[in-house]
Amino acid sequence: MEERKKVIFSGIQPSGDLTLGNYLGALKNWVNLQDSYDCYFCVVDLHAITVRQEPKDLRRRTLEILSIYIAAGIDPEKNTLFIQSHVPAHSEASWLLTCSSYMGELSRMTQFKDKSQNMGDSINAGLFVYPVLMASDILLYNTDLVPVGSDQKQHLELARDLAERFNHLYSPTFTVPEPYIPKSGAKIMDLQDPTKKMSKSSQNPNAYILIMDPPETIRKKISRTVTDSLGVINYTDDQPGIKNLINILSAIKDISPEEVVSLYKGKGYAEFKRDVAEAIIEELEPLQSKVKELMNNKEYLESIYKRGAEKANYVSMKTLRKMQKKIGFIPR
Ligand code: TYM
Question: Element (H or E) spanning 112, and its range?
Answer without folding.
Answer: helix 110-116
